[in-house]
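Whether sequence alone determines local backbone shape is best considered at the level of individual chains. We regard such an encoding as a compact summary of how the chain folds. The sequence in question and its structure tokens are set out directly beneath this paragraph.
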Amino acid sequence: KQSDLTYSTTILDLRISPDILLAVVKSTVELWQRLGPMYLMQPRRRHYTFTMATLSDIFSSLYNHLPATATNQDVLLLWLHECNWLFGKRLATALDRERYAGRLTMAAKKFF
């Protein structure tokens, strides 16, 4: 049909499993909830604040940067990149990065 060719691509049009999308959402929220109490505000950790805006940035990046030809693997790789960029890059010490990596692994194992 002509009308089928005129709509813009949305996340629902992609060839991605709904189960993967649900797992990405759940694991991201789980990770965010675990990082908040783990990195409480301190003078040397002012930049460790993870807000709802951080979650919004992750989901927005996934939505805006996945091509129409994206696969489940593409979603997972972009999700990992965005989490590392928005959560992991803020961490200043090796111990904090190690703790973050452990929480990321736990969230991923729980939902994927």
